Amino acid sequence: MLINHIKKLIEKANSALKNPVIKSMIIVAVITFLVKGLAFYKETIIAGTFGLNEVIDAFIIASLIPTLINSVFISSLNNLFIPNYITELKNHGNKSSFQSVVFLMVIGISVISMIISYFSIDIFLDFIYKNNPDANYQLVKDQFYVLLPCVFIWGIGSVLSGLLEIDNRFLISTVVGFLPIVTMILFLFYLTDTLGSMVLAYGALAGSIVSFLFILIFVLKYNIFSLGKPILNANSRLMIQQLPPKISSGFLSEMNIIVDKFFAGQLVVGSLAALDYANRLPAFGVAIVIMSLGNVLLPHFSRLVNEDLKSAYQYLFKILKLVFIGVLVAVLIGVFLSDWIVELWLERDQFTHEDTIKVSAIQQILFLNVPFYLCTLITVKFLTSINKNSFMAWISLANLAINIILNTILIKYYGVYGLALSTSLVFIISSCFYFGYTYKQYKKLD
Questions:
Q1: Would you list the domain boundaries of the chain?
Q2: Which of 29, 173, 288, 323 could form a disulfide with 164 if both were Cys (CB 3.0 to 4.6 A apart)?
Q3: CA distance 359 to 300
Q4: What is the pTM of this model?
Q5: Exposure of 391 by Cβ count < 10 A (0-12 exposed, 13-18 middle, 19+ buried)?
Q6: Is residue 179 within 8 Å of residue 211, measured between CB atoms?
Q7: Burial 342-361 (b: 16+ CB within 10 A, else e)
């Protein structure tokens, strides 16, 4: 009897692996797990080298603007580009012209953002990093100037990576994640003495360049890259029309991170680093699931929506149920093992046992939001595929307001732990809003 059950399970597994969507998810999940595992090793080296000191805080602040531009403007465009480009291909449109429009847009966004950022860095630092020593202030600026060119590199690279995913080259677009981590590790091992406190910034820039060249080689190899005269058509116009609400949603979401950094920056030195380290393991779990599901699901959702919208909604709800239950179990285990994980991972050299206790407590609080946050990210992928971006902008605005209120209240009583609790509560509330709206849209189909 047991043998028959095992045989049936094996048959189901073999059948599932023949499904190209599931196969792609598994490939991306495995590679993402390895990439993030290597990233944990990188963080171990950084923690042992710098501990919870001003170098880490300065690097986090310096990377805020480049990361904000990438997450808000470039990622928004890329997320809209994929479903509309798939529609263009399905309608046998002019893919060369469509690609040209997207590349012109991403170049324009990147260059304008870089110029504005360069001239406004002092204003930004006066707001978010005030009351710090001049040496720390200058260290942030020095690292920022090194990181700023990454914006342009990330912009072009994200579109090229999107083309690979549309062409079902998920292996390549995921494997590239190894390169910036390996580059940073090499910089930390061999150039820390030479570059000193600037090693993180130069390592990040070098990693971005290496990753971009890797993606470009494969895009050219598979002849995916195709430029022509940029002409606006129905699909490209729809993409442009959806860009403002998508950017607004992304900007307001990222402002939650800026707000948290602002509040953490007002606390004792090391609070930014502690918050950042504590978020690594929850982010690790999120990245594995959203990279394996999200990157595969956006093109898949886009194709399903064009074929049968009701079936697409049902597929979404099935995915959400499986993800929430599975991740909730993993989160409970993570909360229980939190102290042991942080001690094993980070506690050495400059990183003390006191640092371990602090980071672990914050990590346990952040674990609570992971199932809700993941379901939100998957729902966002679906809503993007059906061009429901205006709603996401309003939800992001509500999240920002709730986050500011909760931060202001909770930081008075719990310090950096209050910031973590506020973050988790915002993600939980947001997830409820997103699911309620999506289910309401589904019921309208009846």
A1: 22-443
A2: 173
A3: 38
A4: 0.65
A5: middle
A6: yes
A7: bbebbbeeebeeebbebbbb
